[in-house]
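Researcher: Re-running this chain for the archive, since the previous output was lost when a drive failed. Same request as before.
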Amino acid sequence: MALVLIVDDASFMRMRLRRVVTEAGHDVIEAANGLEAIEMYKEHKPDVVLMDITMPEMDGVEALKQIIELDPNAKVIMCTALGQKSMVMESVKAGAKDFIVKPFQPEQVVEAVNKQVG
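Model: Regenerated structure tokens:
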């Protein structure tokens, strides 16, 4: 079982991801934007982060960069809409371990998380 930080500005998306991740046996904490994500990461040191790219206050790519600065071994999976290929490439260069494309199937999320927790 792992602790997973879900970061998305849309509460319905956090709820959906929470359900999928908890049904897979993991614990969940949540953040609504990149700034909250960094604070939650510092406080809880989650095993995996599921991070939306497009958010207010601080986008997922910037939050990813700051989390990787705090913890070079952070396991961050980016959640992206179709058509954000350049953002995905930037995320991978910045240290993202994986990405999933919205709308996603629950199995894709579970597989991505489980791959990171080994």
